[in-house]
């Protein structure tokens, strides 16, 4: 029986400062707060009082002292607040400072512009002939075209079976590899239809001009209309491993899942260099020239 709700387990790398404490003040229940938040707020208040009573600020007028204390306490309680991931807002300040310069928010993509700005966004060193992606952080990855089994028309029993299978799959996934799911809307893939049309063309016993013209017409319809104007939803998963061995282990887990059951993933196709480049072009370039040299 599938669960009705799922909780995020506590990470194994949490420290003493991540432990949460709940307490009440005068019968009023205070939300649980991690130790790092309590220590930060307490330390911020003490530093504010020390600065207002000991440093040169005490020589200012009462109005300025009150203004400084109010501003400092607002800053302490704001930076000491928690984000959705239970981290202090203080931890987001370095990212904010790195984003403030205009050069960090504007990336030129002209052919005459330097590649450093775009490279900092893409983070890809190269794309091998077999489709292996080399990322700038030293990790490697592969792109898979996947077809799932989810549908609005599923019965409750099928939904429970799929949820149980997905839960079982993620328990087997190694922590050394990251799964990036990508959903795009692209022109329909017509490789199989074109290949079948070519086989039928080669199998023609009579090379009649009318039959050949009909073949050409069907080929134009496939390439110009079906494969050009009509779009469909495509789903990909990028396995990004910390090393080649980590990527191989994640591949084996995914392969075992596909071979063992079609509940979570009904079909998976490993993409080569050309197909992976076509998928990446959607995010990094468009539909023009080649993404990689």
UniProtKB/TrEMBL annotation:
Keyword Membrane: yes
Membrane-crossing residue ranges in chain numbering: 38-57, 63-82
Keywords: Membrane, Transmembrane, Transmembrane helix
Domain of life where this protein originates: Bacteria
Protein name: Uncharacterized protein
